[in-house]
Design goal:
The protein is about 75% helix and about 0% strand.
């Protein structure tokens, strides 16, 4: 490992910790008022970004399997940029809007026994998908960044080793992001 690698690995872990702390802070910090009107478009845009990333990740895999390395790189850069935009939009949205409750049919922020019985076991499925999505989203950020570091520095064998882990996790996080959006969107109160 070179001095340059050590610097970038420290930077990657620093970025990862910073992002995690910002997301945790979003749960603690009271939302500023008033919320800008564009805020309510962000969940829909975020869902679309996750869908686009899912498709692009699959296309990227097809490119590399066909040895189209330049197309693979470009596709991954686009996916990475979209993921960064997703993260910014996610932070901005959750700064102003706190969590929506799954099953809150009357959008009052409280789940009644009737609402709980209507959603039934779907609620457990939602929370399982959401929990795995969140946990793996935390894990995948440094994996993606290290994969990019290895790929751009042409450390192909090291890149392949980490991509075996980062790719399926990134794809899972992108796909489950769409699923979470589709499952929670009927309960938005805006």
């Amino acid at each position: 490992m070179t001095l340059n690698d050590k610097f970038f690995l420290r930077l990657i872990w620093g970025v990862t910790v910073f992002v995690l702390l910002v997301v945790i802070a979003l749960k603690i910090v009271p939302p500023p008022q008033p919320a800008p009107s564009f805020i309510y478009l962000l969940p829909h845009i975020i869902g679309g970004i996750n869908a686009a990333c899912s498709i692009l990740l699959i296309i990227s895999l097809i490119f590399i399997k066909r040895k189209k390395i330049q197309a693979h790189k470009i596709t991954n850069i686009i996916t990475f940029i979209l993921s960064a935009i997703f993260l910014i939009f996610y932070i901005v949205f959750h700064l102003y809007e706190k969590d929506t409750k799954f099953g809150d049919l009357d959008h009052n922020g409280v789940l009644s026994q009737i609402e709980l019985s209507v959603v039934g076991s779907t609620r457990y499925i939602y929370f399982f998908i959401l929990a795995t999505h969140i946990l793996l989203a935390i894990i995948v950020l440094p994996l993606i960044l290290i994969s990019f570091l290895r790929g751009f520095s042409m450390q192909i064998e090291r890149h392949k080793k980490i991509v075996r882990w980062s790719y399926p996790v990134w794809l899972y996080v992108a796909i489950t992001g769409v699923i979470v959006y589709l499952m929670i969107s009927p309960y938005y109160n805006f």
